[in-house]
Amino acid sequence: MTSQTITAAASGTWTLGDLPVHRIGFGAMRLAQNGKAFAPDAAPGDRGRAISVLRRAVELGVNHIDTAAFYFSSLRSANELINRALAPYPDDLVITTKVGPGRDPSGQWLPHAGPGQLRGQVEENLRQLGRDHLDVVNLRVLGTDSVAERFDALARLRDAGLIRHLGLSNVTPDQLAEAQAIAPVVCVQNPYGIGVRPDQDAFVHACGEQGVAFVPFYSIAGAGRDAGASGAESPEVLAVARAHGVSAAQVRLAWTLHQGPHVLGIPGTGNLDHLLANVAVGALRLSEEDMTVLNFAHSGGI
User: Fold this and answer.
1) 256 in Cβ contact with 216 (< 8 Å)
2) How many degrees, rounded to 5, is the angle at CA 217 between CA 148 and CA 288?
3) How much is the average pLDDT of 14-37?
4) Which band of pLDDT confidence, cut at 50, 70 and 90, is reported for residue 3?
């Protein structure tokens, strides 16, 4: 593949509610700092480089950016970097954010927000992004408790015009059904990838049947999670990568996109070369044989 000539349009499109997006998007989690995400002692990311990456992403057709107010370091905020780089925002740009978690100014995690605290988190995202409404807000969930009260609070903010569409993050099928009884859900954002949560396979496909976008995170990082890709790869992933002349990271991202047209990628990076490679994955077509090999790796060889 010639990544310099490929745009996000090659990945196809999906509609979040009434908002069309290319299936290759961009995750902003790593923009604000270097090293492991959310580490209190991580060095702030380079401001100029982050702004350049965001602007280049949009030039390459990326029109779906995933962010959160709790993506920040001692000097940088992902939301404010997005604002600085891209405002006034292109008409087709969809910014998805999430609420629920919070961090104090030192970076330490706070208890997840209750229903009465969610409006403040929504307003903080609005302020940082310089928006009068948020395109999509995901309720980030910790554990298997009921989401009804919190999701209802967000539904009320949607009715008030502060939010256009609602989604969920880190949830179970039961929690999705509970939320859907309150208001439409346009996306589910869960950890998923080759070898990451194979128990989610049925949920991924069920979301597609319901017209709900499935947005996997850690699809490239795998077991590395917040720290990023570990560098260790399965023989199956490496074999497919060699056959196509691409990287293992590109194969991992392509495999998730091949799970269905409703699966959206949000790979994040602060590196322009990695951005080009991620966007180029939209043109990578895996064969049935490739998928069989990778599915074997995903299931742990079972």
Assistant:
1) yes
2) 115
3) 91
4) very low
Alpha carbon of 18 to those of 13, 89, 262: distances in Å? 12, 18, 14
Could you tell me which residues come within 8 angstroms of residue 204 by beta carbon, excluding any fewer than 6 positions away?
192, 214, 216, 259, 260, 263
Closest alpha carbon to 196 in 154, 259, 139, 240: 259
In angstroms, the CA 24 to CA 284 distance is 12
Give the closest residue to 264 by CA, choosing from 19, 6, 46, 5.
19
Question: CA-to-CA distance for 221 and 237, rounded, in angstroms?
Answer: 13
Structure tokens at 287: 């064969």
Q: Catalytic site residues?
A: 71
183: tokens are 């208001």
- 5 backbone dihedrals φ, ψ, rounded to 5°: -105, 0
* Residue 43: HSE in the Cβ half-sphere, 13 Å Cα cutoff: 5
Cα gap 178→18, rounded to integer Å: 22
pLDDT at 34: 78
In terms of pTM, does the model score above 0.85? yes
Q: Summarize the confidence of residues 282-295 as an average pLDDT.
A: 98
Averaged pLDDT for residues 31-42: 74
Q: Which residues of 71-110 are buried (b: 16+ CB within 10 A; e: fewer)?
A: bbbeebbbbbbbbebbeebeeebbbbbbbbbbbeeebeee
Query: How much is the mean pLDDT over the chain?
Result: 93
List 21's β-bridge partners, or say none: 14
CA pair distance 35, 44, nearest whole angstrom? 9
Rounded CA-CA distance 26/144 in Å is 28
Secondary structure E strands in 203-252: 213-214
